[in-house]
């Protein structure tokens, strides 16, 4: 069965952060997700997770440094080590990483220290990924590398395609380094989200959903998410499906839209049990 988690920093924004976990649990979620950990009280977060019988499915693992910038390597790796410590403290099994650090919204990629070639950036990323893979194995966590769109949200970001992300992960060859497939970003960049997820299924460790082009809840754009979720179930995807979007109306309507994505899957499960 697919595991679903809801993002408590892009959704439930009408509530103080410390009240969002209880609201997510009340809405039927067993898993939640968030962005960075540095601005959180981690002991308090762990306490709230335990009190609400919730698990943190994923959180950001990188911060103000770029993986594809050789000048950032030492600082990037130091930050990753701190992220691993934070993940272990709150029981988070997945850390999301990117090619570039992102500036404040509107999120432009942080400028590079020099004019690097494409090959130099790829080599820098591979070097970092090979370094952190054994750290992830020792800690019992998984890093997931996310490609982003550059037309609407993340101008200047280096990693923009599923294939390049997969090629990097395949070159590392570790079960603790996988791809985060974001259906919103990749629909805008590539289209064919069903074909792509099936083709690269062994490399996908986490998944994000938001409708396109508005980055709102399912049903507000052009992607048929009930069909896509059913497709993920059929091809045997076993990771979390993270709903990371900005509600177009309010949280209540957004949660209903999330639940509607699973109606077909639940129907098949009920039929199979009869």
Automatic annotation (TrEMBL):
Keyword DNA damage (UniProt): no
Molecular functions (GO terms): endonuclease activity; isomerase activity
Residues at the active site: 146, 244
Alphabetized UniProt keyword annotations: Endonuclease, Hydrolase, Isomerase, Nuclease, Pyruvate
Keyword Nuclease included in the entry's annotation: yes
InterPro entries reported in the protein's UniProt record: HyI-like, Sugar_Epim/Isomerase, Xyl_isomerase-like_sf, Xyl_isomerase-like_TIM-brl
Protein name (Swiss-Prot/TrEMBL): AP endonuclease
């Amino acid at each position: 069965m697919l595991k679903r988690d809801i993002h408590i920093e892009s959704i439930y924004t009408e509530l103080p952060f410390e009240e969002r976990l209880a609201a997510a649990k009340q809405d039927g979620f067993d898993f939640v997700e968030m962005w960075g950990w540095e601005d959180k009280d981690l002991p308090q977060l762990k306490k709230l997770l335990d009190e609400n019988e919730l698990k943190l499915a994923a959180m950001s693992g990188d911060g103000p440094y770029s993986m594809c910038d050789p000048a950032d390597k030492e600082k990037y790796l130091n930050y990753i080590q701190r992220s691993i410590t934070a993940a272990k403290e709150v029981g988070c099994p997945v850390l999301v990483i990117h090619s570039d650090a992102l500036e404040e919204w509107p999120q432009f990629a942080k400028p590079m220290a020099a004019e690097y070639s494409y090959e130099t950036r790829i080599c820098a990323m591979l070097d970092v990924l090979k370094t952190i893979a054994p750290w992830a194995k020792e800690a019992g966590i998984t890093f997931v590398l996310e490609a982003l769109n550059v037309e609407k949200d993340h101008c200047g970001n280096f990693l923009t395609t599923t294939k390049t992300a997969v090629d990097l992960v395949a070159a590392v060859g570790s079960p603790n380094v996988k791809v985060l497939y974001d259906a919103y970003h990749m629909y805008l960049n590539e289209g064919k989200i069903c074909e792509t997820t099936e083709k690269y299924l062994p490399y996908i460790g986490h998944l994000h959903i938001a409708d396109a082009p508005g980055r709102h809840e399912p049903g507000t754009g052009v992607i048929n998410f009930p069909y896509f979720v059913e497709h993920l179930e059929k091809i045997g995807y076993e990771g979390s499906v993270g709903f990371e979007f900005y509600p177009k109306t309010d949280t209540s309507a957004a949660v209903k839209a999330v639940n509607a994505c699973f109606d077909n899957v639940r129907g098949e499960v009920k039929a199979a049990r009869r």
